[in-house]
Specification:
The complex is a heterodimer of chains A (88) and B (230). With 88 residues, chain A is α+β, with helices and mostly antiparallel strands. Chain A has a single domain (2-80), classed as Mth169, Chain: A, CATH 3.30.1280.10. In chain A, 27% of the residues lie in helices and 27% in strands. Chain A is built from two helices and three strands. In chain A, strands 2-1-3 form a three-stranded antiparallel β-sheet, with helices on one face. Chain A is elongated, with a radius of gyration of 16 Å. Chain B is of the alpha/beta class and 230 residues long. Chain B is globular, with a radius of gyration of 16 Å. Classes of the chains: A alpha+beta (88), B alpha/beta (230). At the A-B interface, helix 1 of A face loops of B.
């Protein structure tokens, strides 16, 4: 089974209230080295076989049409993650 | 055109305000028509309302999945032919995700859900949904959302302002971080309007802050519905 991982982040110029809330909470727990947090989304797309160039291409198009909204978000990565970094 | 005007209200999984929207349509003197997200059929209506709520649980992004519902293909086609379409709250988010309106709605800058009576200025009466108002008229209708911050790039904002497509603006303080205090906008033709506040909750005495919401539904009765048969 193959897996494609897609990362989507809010655009730098878009206010990220969730990231702001997290950065506010960190020092309260003693994590005082961090001055900024931005929170994005990670998608894991499974395919029955290998991750071919065609699979990656379709994943890229899905990322740009459904998984992200280009007005407020950037697709920062679309990659074959079949071998490692499985989050499930 | 006002006699027997039929206004469809779409119900998505997770719509909340479809019942109130149908009631508002009726109180304004039109006939409400139930439309179902899974049917690619507008049942011959003259106008469409996309109501508030949390379609598909707001999963992915608000309105992002509703955009691909079978009924939306018909709504997009009809809007292109000039049919009046109104998106309220979640419906506004669906219109932005469908690219019928520019921009996007993001989480309120203060990170809290907000529910209040909101003062607005009607900036444009040159749309299918605001012709019953005087330009500059101030109204009060409920506002209730967690993700109501309107954002778009500077060029888009300038174009909206320049073309008179900012339809509603927040007064007495910006409730959610919307750029340029924008509460509602229209497409170029003025038949598609989206706004975050809820006119359908201000259509009856004793319920809500007054009757200011009726104006939107009354407007569509007199709107130029000539393009609708297309």
């Amino acid at each position: 089974m193959g897996r494609v991982v897609i990362d989507v982040m809010p655009k730098p110029e878009i206010l990220d209230p969730q990231g702001k809330a997290v950065v506010g909470a960190l020092p309260r727990l003693g994590f005082d080295l961090f001055t900024g947090v931005r929170q994005g989304k990670r998608f894991e797309l499974e395919v029955p076989g290998e991750v071919t160039p065609e699979v990656l291409e379709q994943a890229r198009r899905a990322a740009e049409t459904l998984l992200s909204n280009p007005v407020i978000e950037d697709v920062v990565s679309v990659r074959d993650a079949s071998a490692a970094e499985v989050g499930a | 055109m006002s006699e027997g005007t039929r206004v469809g209200v779409v119900t998505f999984p997770g719509s909340l305000d479809d019942g109130d929207a149908r009631r508002a349509v009726k109180l304004a003197g039109a006939e409400p028509v139930v439309l179902w997200h899974a049917d690619a059929d507008l049942r011959g209506v003259d106008a469409v309302v996309l109501p508030g709520g949390f379609s598909y649980g707001d999963y992915l992004r608000c309105g992002a999945i509703a955009r691909f519902a079978p009924v939306m293909g018909e709504v997009v086609r009809a809007a292109g032919a000039g049919m009046p379409v109104l998106g309220i709250c979640n419906g506004f988010q669906v219109l932005c995700e469908s690219h019928l309106l520019p921009g996007a709605l993001v989480r309120n800058d203060h990170q809290r859900f907000l529910c209040k009576d909101q003062r607005l200025r009607v900036e444009s009466s040159a749309t299918a949904w605001t012709s019953a108002f005087a330009p500059g008229q101030e109204i009060t209708i409920p506002l209730k959302n967690g993700e109501g911050g309107f954002v778009a790039d500077e060029a888009t904002l300038d174009r909206l302002e320049g073309e008179g497509r900012v339809v509603f603006r927040y007064l007495e303080g910006n409730p959610n971080g919307s750029l340029r205090d924008i509460a509602g906008i229209s497409n170029e033709r003025g038949n598609v309007v989206g706004l975050m506040p809820h006119p359908e909750h201000a259509v009856e005495e004793l319920f809500g802050p007054g009757l200011d919401g009726l104006g939107l539904f009354a407007s569509v009765l007199s709107a130029g519905l000539r393009a609708v048969s297309a």
